Structure formats: C-alpha cells, structure tokens
Fold this sequence. Notes:
Elements: E1 9-12, H1 17-26, E2 33-36, H2 38-41, H3 50-55, E3 58-62, H4 69-76, E4 86-90, H5 97-102, H6 104-114, H7 125-172, H8 176-197, H9 201-211, H10 220-225, H11 228-265, E5 271-277, E6 282-288, H12 289-294, H13 298-330, H14 341-370, E7 382-383, H15 398-401, H16 410-414
Parallel strand pairs: 1-2, 3-4
Antiparallel strand pairs: 5-6, 5-7
Helix pairs in contact: 7-13, 7-14, 8-9, 8-11, 8-14, 13-14
Amino acid sequence: MLTQRKIKHNVLNAKLHQKEAEIVALAGQTGMVTIATNMAGRGTDIKLSAEVKAAGGLAIIGTERHESRRVDRQLRGRAGRQGDPGSSVFFVSLEDQLMRLFATERIAGLMDKMGFKEGEVLEHNMLSKSVERAQKKVEENNFGIRKRLLEYDDVMNSQREVIYKRRRHALMGERIGIDIINMLYDSAVAITDQYVDAQDYEGLKIELLRVLAIECPIKEDEFRSMKPEKVGDTVYEYAIKNFKQRMDRLAEIANPVIKDVYENQGQSFENILIPITDGKRVYNITCNLKEAYETGSQGVIRSFEKSILLHTIDEQWKEHLREMDELRHSVQNASYEQKDPLLIYKLESFNLFKTMVDTLNKKAVAILMRGQIPVRQPEQVKEAAPEEKTDFSKYKTQKEDADESGKPSQTEENKPKQAPIRVEKKLGRNDPCFCGSGKKYKNCHGKDEF
Length: 450
C-alpha cells in the first residue's frame, strides 16, 4: 500500500541482517517510514534528528493489539525513550483474532445501537477497556497452559533426579558397593514377596535361578511356615554371600593374566580390555592395568560393576522415557470421562517408575551374578583404545582405491564385476498368459500359484 502511494519506506524484519543497522540509523530521520515486525521492533533504540524532535518525535502506529499487553507496551516503548518526544496509536479491527475470539459480539452490538457505520473510527475509553479485558483473558489462558506444562514436567523431574543420582554414584564409583547391596536386597525382597503371597514354592525356585542365579536356600516346609520378611532376609543373605564369592573368583581368574601382562608388557599398555560374559553377551570392560595389578585385580571387579550399572541404567531410562511420552499423550483422553489427566498421569507414572526401577535392579543383578571371564592367555590381551573410531576405508570409491599411477589396485582388478540385478515384470493373476493360449494367467500356467 505504501509502494502504491509512492511513500518511501524500509522494512525491518530480522532477515536483512547486513542492512539492519543502516535501516535503524535512518529510521529517526525526517520523513522516514519504517515497517517493523514484532521480532525486529522490540529492543530497538532509534536515534532522532533535531528536526524530528522539533516535529513531535517518533510516531508509532500499531496495526493490531496483541495477545499479551507486554508486547504492546514493548512496541509503544520504541517512542519517547530517554526523554525524546513521541506518540503511539494502535488500530484495532473486529476481524483481528483477539477481538474475534473475545470481544466481537458485544462491541458489534454496541456499534449497531450507536449508529456507527463501516470504517468509522471508534475512540472510546470503554472500547480500550474491552480490549484490555480480552488481552487479560488470553494471558490467563496462556498462564494456565504454562502452569499445567510445568506440573507435568515436575513429575518427570522428580524421577529424573532419582535416576541421575544413581547414575552419578555409578559414574564416580564411590558408592557402587552400597548400591549393589541395595539392589540385591530389593530384588530378593521383591521376588520373595511375590511368591510368598501366592504360596508358590516352585515359582520362587525358578525365579531365584533366573534372576539371582542361586538355588533356593529354604526348604518347602520352611517356606510355608516362615514369615515373608524372614524368607526375604534369608534369600538376601545367601545371595550376597554368593555374589562376594563370584567376585572373588573373577579376581582370582583375572589376576595371573593381569600380573603377567603388567610385568612383561606394562610399558606398552595403559588400559586393557577384559571380556566378561553373563552367558548371553560379552561385555568388554575397560580397566587400568596398573590399578588392576596393584589391587590384586579388584580394580577389574570395580570396573565391571561400574560398566554394568551404567549400561543397565541408561538402557532402562531410555525405555522409560519412551513409555512416559506415550503415557502423556494417552492420558489426555481422560478428560472425556470427566477425569483430571494430570492426576492419572501422576498415578500411572509412579507405577511405571516403580516397575522400571524393579526391572533395572533385576537386570543389573542378573548380569553381575553370572559374570565370568573366558580363559585368556597373556598374549591375547588387547589394549583398550581411548575411543572407538569407525573404519571408513571400506566405503572408499573405486576412484579413491586407484593407486598413484591411475590403475586400480590389485584386489580391485581381481574382483569380479557384479552384474546388475534385473527385476522382470510379474504377471498379474488376471493378465493374459505368456504362452499365447488366450487364457488368463490364473487359469493357465499360473493355476498352481493361486
């Protein structure tokens, strides 16, 4: 519209970064018109010339009232800064989103009663107050949305603090022993409570073998007569005894190899990889060679415990985050049943977290109780690289594989060229048969396929 009327103007839209400073510098000159978006207009100080100050200063024209009164005040604040003169005026249309949602019917009815015509300017205190009330409603709605979002995040944050604290303990290595003892105790109590309540002795034996890798230390008649707390304590004491024996055995197996490698190749290796398996997968544990040698391979045990705890915590926490995200979306349907989605989210998230911690304990304990070191000779010991790097050599193109003379390498020359795979068009069941009989394929050579 300004271009049609041949009014010279500049556009400040936070896109013309190179010209932005020049546009702002010229905006305070006589007769200059600058169009600024909300993004570009906020926080911009415009220096006025003497002629502009004498003429009344910078004039701000707003094309709509925003949802937040703070945005309007920011835009008004471009004028009258640091004692400079200035003025501001905002134009409001009943078709603006703010007015359409909150104030249209009442103001439109008032205009009809007072006999105003289309396009007439309304300047009345009641109209300004009506706009401010509409803005206040929007601000209250937005505040409620942000508050609700924070309440959802508080649930997640409380769980995050628990997991991150446990992970920090595993990472620093100072409380690993205590944490593992607590995990053994929690797992033993959870298993016994489940099967004592059901009076399922056979189920208890199977579960103890599956999780803790131990035989049930209680006979069936004792199981049925003992209190649940006593059963849990007995299982825990037997499990912790087996765990310590297994860790001592691991150190005993590893120590001769560690000693031989340190005494003969200590100058070559700083960290070494020690494979430990639970029968399902092999975990390559990085361990400091000197520390392992000086502690009689107890450093190997600490590294094993640390790696397993970190691996299990990370794995279960990632799965829990996915489940919490699904829960957050699904609880919104509770509003259709006149229930509070936040309350259901809190209850269900607690159950999910409790299940996750129980699973975490059982998985970590199951690996630790089954840990074994495959028999290795000193010459088979590998150095632990500080960081695994992907070998991209296999992705080199044929041109890169060519030697300096421009000829392909010998391996490339000897490699047979693969013919491209061609996919023939498959006949449909109702297409004419390829033999030329005139019958459909399903009734001729393809009758055995359909």
